[in-house]
Amino acid sequence: MRKPRKRSFEELVLENKRQILNDRDAMEKLEAKLEQKRLSKAE
């Protein structure tokens, strides 16, 4: 039986990025957070 290969940090980040890009709800939450951040910095 083969030993499972450990993923590198970069591979995990890419996988998470793909999942988030495919999830509309998660994208909307991220966009709202970024907008809030920008607005608070502008003040």
TrEMBL record:
This is FbpB family small basic protein. It comes from the Bacteria. Pfam families: Fur_reg_FbpB. It comes from Mesobacillus maritimus.
